[in-house]
Batch of 3 targets.
Target 1
Amino acid sequence: MHTLEVDWDHPTDPRPGPRLDHVRAYVSTAGADGHLWHGVPTLLLTTLDRTTGTTVRIPLIYGEDAGRFLVVASADGAPDHPHWYRNLTAHPEVRLQVGAATFEATAHTATATEREVYWEMMTALWPPFEDDQAAARPREIPLVILERLPGR
């Protein structure tokens, strides 16, 4: 099997604005400034862009369970899945920065059973996800499980 060479170290960051400011603060301080955002934990997710082959990075709120990281593809209640989610469904190997730690992980969309368990956890962490789900209907907002790759 051919392994795709991915440049994880030079991702494209969000356009100028609050998300870019968040990413820059997070990276420049190894997560000391930016890991907590509005009182909730955030990570930086880097995906391989399915159309350009470049890497892109975005900050996301996360939950954690048994060493697995959970993120919600809400897109603020938009009718379509966010770009980062469509990227990881095409290429499930991703890079995460959680605080000062940076590592590769693999992503999968939660099964119906996993989503049922973790959705409650994520909406308790960030209640606006419920509003996003109401706005996104009929789209069901995916919940993504990220698992660190062994030895990375």
Target 2
Amino acid sequence: MKLRIDQRQLADAARRAHRRLPGKPLQPVLTGLLLEAGGDTVTLSGFDLDTATRATLDADTLEPGEAVISGRLLADVTAALPAGPVDLIADKREATITAPGTSFTLPVMERRDYPALPVPPGASGTVDGALLAVAVGHAAQAAMPEKEAVGNMLGFGGVHLAADGDQLVVSASDRYRIVRHTLPWRPDGDEAGELLIPAADIAATAKQMASSEIRISFTGSRGVAALATDQLTVTSRTIAGDFPDIDRFFPDPAAAAGWMRADADELAETVKRAALVNEKPEQPVVLVFDRDELTVRGGVDGSRGASRIPAETADLDGFEIAYRPDFLGSLLTPISGQVQMWFTTASKPALLVPVDDDTYRAVCMPVRIPS
């Protein structure tokens, strides 16, 4: 294999792919990156048996071929090269990477030991990458940690994508929080579809692709999901379990006992301040309503704190409810401007929505009010 490629292109692709490689793989060859050169492109791929990344880069191929090179070495070496064209020559024993005044020789791994990469399914539609990265990144925070999402909880460890018509719905839950974002979706056909992808995987992928339009495949079968841009394709496993039926946990505003409106940023800061005296992250804060004022209390048995903000309320005088502060704060993060919350009882979930935005909904489960 012999090719010439831009240093920045190669270094960026190697760095991104190397970050997705496993630290302690089952097979040593999985610490390598596969380069496949032909025509006017070179494909750089990484694979950890769950997620495969493929970056397609412009290159002048003098001799087509393939080589597997240590991902760490390739990322470090290409980043250290001067800007400009880079020559890469590889045979069965070694790869030489040369730039003006600089040359590195690296060992290559056995190509036949590198596992076959999964074939990405065709795209089903397109979504704005920046919007998807924000929605998926936020949803992933509300998913259950992977080590806890086992057995019948398996589905809580993923971010669920569902396409229907011109909407893409992004959802996640850890049983204590539910988040749902609705994004504009440009389908290729009339079929609906869904995917359930491990939260950390899809968050990392969407972040990588945030600057581009993203094509997503809904194949109708479990096993493989693909997100792609013109230069990058990421194929990852899907979760074998079903996503929980979270629709029934969204409270009906018409059945609420009362509601309140407040500035979302101000409420988040108030919750954070009140929690400063809490001894543990899971220790709750208590929301107390009195006419047009909301008091948030934190601490118990010693250090205590309270912070007040104005709030428009209906039928909530004397009502108290407690939440884990980091959970409530996380649900307020995407909201710009006013948030409206509907309450039923102190033991039932509350619904949160932005006052002027119908693309986001969230549910927060309360906890026992500390005595």
Target 3
Amino acid sequence: MKLTFWGASRQVTGSMYLLELEDDYKILIDCGTDMERELDFTQPVTGYQPFFPFEAAQVNLVLLTHAHIDHSGNIPMLYREGYEGQVLCTPPTAELAEILLYDAASLNYKKLKQAEGDSKKKKKKMDRLMVKGDLYLQKDVEDTMSNFVTIQFNRRFKVKDGVWITFVPAGHLLGAAHIILETLDNGVKKSICFSGDIGRDNYPLLLDPSSELPETDYVVCETTYGARLHEDKISPEDALAKVIQRACIDLPGRLIIPAFSVGRTQALLYTLNKLYTERGFKPIKVFSDSPLAYASTKIYQKNVRQLNKAAQEFYEENDGLFDFENLQYIQSEKASRAISNYTEPCIIISASGMVSGGRVEQHIAANINNVYCTILLVGFASEGTLGWKLMHGQKTLRIKDVELPVLATVEKIDVFSGHGDQNDLLKFVGKHKPERVKKVFLVHGEEESMVTFKGILEEKGYSNVEMPEKGQSYEL
């Protein structure tokens, strides 16, 4: 069989791997949005341009590790290009993917409406959108979700004669899975483990990555944090409590936390609830400013039995995970803008986590020169984003064509990062003995991170470690 790497190759986003079996049965593992895709916008749109580098109609099955858009975001495009099969994933992944894909479709619709018109500027904007190509809409998502089929964790599922898959808890996000794929062809057994995104032990709400991974012939491992270790060694409660004390009580001022709507926001709200419930922390006004975060929070609450033991016990004792005094969910853009009029100490949790668009960008623009404001960065930010610039101490920020001085206090903690660090990745690969595994493929990371992690694996005896280029194929 043949494995081709069509995404997240020597970069972080756009996970997409095509496995072709001996009988020409094709399985696509993940189909994510490539946030780093480079396009030539100088070339005019001339007729139909296929979106994928392979025939979508020839794919037989899609397996989805988890719901994040860099793993799921182009599934509607796959159906638009002619795919007619199913998407297999865990039940929470299907629920979260649905709200994420509908949100992406809504953003696409807004972009198209803003580009309508006869002016040169409007036509140029529309041309750029057409070149980009991934403008699926709500009907496309509706058609897509009707083909999702869910499978519980740790259930070995027969896809067809000679092909089985198992979804194994990966941590990282509600429903996130490692995928174990086994084949039997002409009496020859082969197996592959796709890591998806690897979580970390003792993360708020989530199950730990499984310690029961079977050994496989081949391993596809993400490397987001392949070159680094998490710095903070204290608990999420202690880390967040210290920042709140400095930013909202000692000062007192406002605390802005850029956070992804799905996953990170729920971890923060749950931790705040624990501070107020278990430590007697004085409730401070908390604005959760993201409709998508509100929707995903309800899915987390609904799937409490898919969460870790501590979260389940907290739920039983408090009849909920996230609702606490002074928490306000913000839905409308008007209500979001009105937060600026709130003059008491407060905490604003808003997307996007990298400060690359979204409502949080407006909150930061309104407060970046406020010495009574603290901006707390709690996760990874890609180079070039506003979050990355804040994290690296840039003294001014350009937001909406306005250069603003950074007078607010900027802090960062990494206890809320949903990605496992170098040690967690080594623990994952270490489930497969060097003398047993035939190849380890490194994906989903910046090249520097991959090179570092490859060197460490080789020192530990893994002699066949590959860093595939985009489009590179391997016979397994």
